[in-house]
Amino acid sequence: MGSEPREDPRRELIDLPVLHKLKLYSTRTTFYLIGRDEKKTFWRILKIDRTDPKELNLFEDPTRYTPDEISQLKKWISRGNQEHGGLRAETTCYGIIGFVRFLGPYYMLVIRKRKKVGEICGHAIYGVAESQMIMVPYPSSETRVSSSAAERRYRKLFNMVDLSKNFYFSYTYRLMYSLQKNICNTERGKIHDNSMFVWNEYLTRGIRGILKNTVWTVALVYGFFEQIKCSVSNEEFILTVIARRSRRYAGTRYLRRGVNEQGSVANEVEIEQIVSREVPEGKKIPITSVVQVRGSIPLFWSQETSVFNPQPDIILNNTDENYAATKLHFENLRQRYGKRIIIMNLLKTGDKDHRESILKAAFGKAIWFINRQTKKDSRLKAIHYDLNKHFKSGVDGAFEQLCVLGKRALDLIDLFFCEAPLGIGAEGVINDSFLNNPIMNQDKEETIQENESLKADIHKLQSGVLRTNCVDCLDRTNVAQYSHGLVALNQQLRTLGITGPPIVDKDNPVAKKLMEVYENAGDAIAIQYAGSEAHTKMFSALRGEWNMMMKHRDIITAVRRHYNNAYQDGEKQNAINVFLGKSGPQLGRQAPWELGSDQRNTRRTSSNLDIETLRPKISRSLSDNLLLLGELNLEEPILENPEPSREGLNGVIWETTSESGFIEAEPTSPTFHSAIVDEDHLRRTGSRQMLQGSSSMSDFLGLDDVPGFSHSYNARFTPADEMFEICSSVSSDNMFTDLDESITSTTDTNILEFHSSSNQPGRFIEFPLVDGYSNEFTQWVLHEKSSLSRAPR
């Protein structure tokens, strides 16, 4: 007897009204965009008027056509326009990026080629491989302005944003949101394309306003996406890392610093690490995710540089005495991720010219000021760790401490874990794409009803976020975020039930592969913000590959970055502003090349940037950009809708009453006395936190057992490009206090927990040192080692 056919919970999602492929046809007066679904079950038509060069006139035909009906319709249109050449095929595309107008006609941007880069719960994720800009009006005397010098310059600026690099989209998955928000958010009828991570929001505003849907457009996320298939100890899992850049205060390294008046920070990037298991068809997918963020220090500050000064002074603007913009920034984080906000500040404390020390002190004061006005359970948890200094003292020891801090943060905020059916959330995406438009609702067959088989079983929720920063949020931040990702991967594998011997080695294949992915992400973010790849010093040192050749490579990277910052960032910033609709010819605004640097960003006292002549001295912006007329979208709130959250794991919070605002993860003096420590809590949350196989504490410490990390197992990694080879070939990618200057040490310590009664800045409580580590901490470590050695294997 044959077995019963397996019930596929995705069967109701096969014939979704999603347009995957579009063909553009033209007559003298009209563009006809004919779109079809992936299964070729229905066709739709969008008509674009070409007679008015200054207005965008669109009409969506509500009819769902069959192949024969479409073929017949094209013949009728061609015959009706025979006098003017009939109906001509223009191009094939895979979605509308948007419409834009400068001084003359409207242009339509479409995706000419796409590349499948991965899947999330069965939803295909694509990268833009090629785009095309098409002038909408038929060429006439009224469109001659399109050939004017100013129009050409606008087009050139606009096209400087290379859509074929690091722009991603999905037809059925809201890529602008984390996995947790996608699965937990059950709101309907919400506009998602105005999210902070959708870079073509401005370009689609016109078509969305006319059609009242997003059926024809795609939402582009800018940043990074990489997915690999891993096999460890014969157990397979999929690792995905996504970086989403915010568009709200986007720009280049020196022209976007700090925070603006709306609470948005420069170089704000959300990093999501997703791990899932492969399961038989028809079963729910066990999947976990961890989100962390990076972003410029949320104060008003800037830097002025010349071509002769690669390390300019940091200039603070202290007019925001109540830290209103800083508070807005952290409130936004709470709304998006939950109330537990943990700050990892990596600024230098011993820099000779005190550039970063000044910024660190100001940031600490801001945190202290905000926490005074905040309920205890919602206060910011902050720690300062001078990564540059600690790496000089010992690479392995510094990285181990980063992992300890990452483990502590993960204990507080937890991770997201659920079991989700294939294709989950597609019904919400489709329903929302119509924005309550009756076109969809008039056909009852298109209304997708939810049932239990299409719902996820949610087991854990992330209820907060780790926010990491250095000055640029690039090189040091990359290493710190990798350490948090490694600790998170440990927990994610355990959560998914992937077991193995209790051996952790940062040199194992899985850890190395994760490092490679984070290096790739860091390079992409660095190129987008600073114009060069990230520096490789710290990652190379971790691999034991820091040699003269790598030093020369980093010198070249530094030179390239400085050249781009000095000579090209002005034009690049103009291009980003035009692309995002923050500058342009509408509403009487000046052309971006006519603006001095003081007009690109407010709170400037002088202007000496001339984009035409590129004078040697380049004045950089203060960071509280005043939005130009027409930039604000009145439909878009400052705060994102919060993700569902709950309390994280109970534990001690990094907190103090010190004015400096941080816990110092620094060496200390024996003259400081030990604080009262909850030893049971340390054993419960801090045990086995260091990596084996490295110097310093590695002889007796380890992170929680990461299954399959032993060198005795063969790990396999398959890039998503190979996994989706067929699709890819389609022609469519407490708070701290400042240390006294007299306190020095060559060894590193870490404060896991303390309660301070001091209100005086410049003082803090730490464990007294014994050979570089506190006596209490060392005794606890030895106790844990003894316990581990007796544990059954």
From TrEMBL:
It catalyses: a 1,2-diacyl-sn-glycero-3-phospho-(1D-myo-inositol-3,5-bisphosphate) + H2O = a 1,2-diacyl-sn-glycero-3-phospho-(1D-myo-inositol-3-phosphate) + phosphate. Its main location: membrane. GO terms for molecular function: phosphatidylinositol-3,5-bisphosphate 5-phosphatase activity. Keywords: Hydrolase, Membrane, Vacuole. It is a peripheral membrane protein. PROSITE patterns: SAC. GO terms for cellular component: vacuolar membrane. It is found in: Vacuole membrane. It comes from the Eukaryota. Residues 158-531 form the SAC domain. Coiled coil: none annotated. One of its GO terms (biological process) is phosphatidylinositol dephosphorylation. Component of the PI(3,5)P2 regulatory complex at least composed of ATG18, SAC/FIG4, FAB1 and VAC14. This is SAC domain-containing protein. It comes from Brassica campestris.
